[in-house]
Amino acid sequence: MKHPESLLSLKGQVALITGASSGLGAHFAEVLAQAGAAVVLTARRKEKLNQLCTKLTDSGYKALAIAMDVTDAGSIQAALEQTDELLGPVTVLVNNAGVADPKRFHKVDQASWDYTMNTNLNGAWNVASQVSNRMLELKVSGSIVNIASILGIRVGFGDSAYAISKAGLIQMTKAMALELGRKGIRVNALCPGYFKTEINQGYFDSAKGQQYLAGILPQRLGKAHELDIPLLMLCSDAGSFINGIALPVDGGHLVGSL
Questions:
Q1: Which contiguous run of DSSP H or E holds residue 47?
Q2: Looking at 115, 162, 203, 212, which residue is catalytic?
Q3: Is this prediction's pTM over 0.85?
Q4: For 92-241, where are the alpha helices, taking DSSP H only?
């Protein structure tokens, strides 16, 4: 019988995190490195990636920073080839890159819609497609975690395009899990509630944002460390019999009374 702590270990794994230059992506990268994975930090902002990479390597962890644009298939291919050469094939993918452009549905224009969908849904598909195909070619088992949102499960005012993109990501997760599960690739979605990030910090620092938090079940924002064990469970052997789920981590926000 394995000790529970050993089940969460990612020793010997190569984990690629998209959107790792800041926010939850940077936090996830540190969590996976601390669990023993060699981490590949990817985002468009290479300067910030380099800072995080130096922090990790100075602490004794194995990390690699690669500039990558999830909306560019060639950029993804180049990043994966570099990873293969320097660390070996990716066995854990955390598909975290995401953007938001909050607007009511009737005010969403084509540019706003494309901006949101190209990263949150098309970008996630671009990366997951290439990573899973490489896993299949090399006959390696692995885990893919798509970072969705509770807004992919229920909607809120002013976030229609974002919610639709995350709902699509959850359905993509289920389709991938169904088709890849027998090939040794588990695919799950992690659905955070509200955590302070670059995307939303202005709102939650405002009086209106504080008023909103007072009215939801947890009455506060989540703390980044509260995502650590759910993420590690989905990435590691601790979640070896978990496939195709959308896991909310939201302090009970979704069960708030109607």
A1: helix 46-58
A2: 162
A3: yes
A4: 110-117, 124-138, 160-180, 201-204, 207-214, 228-235
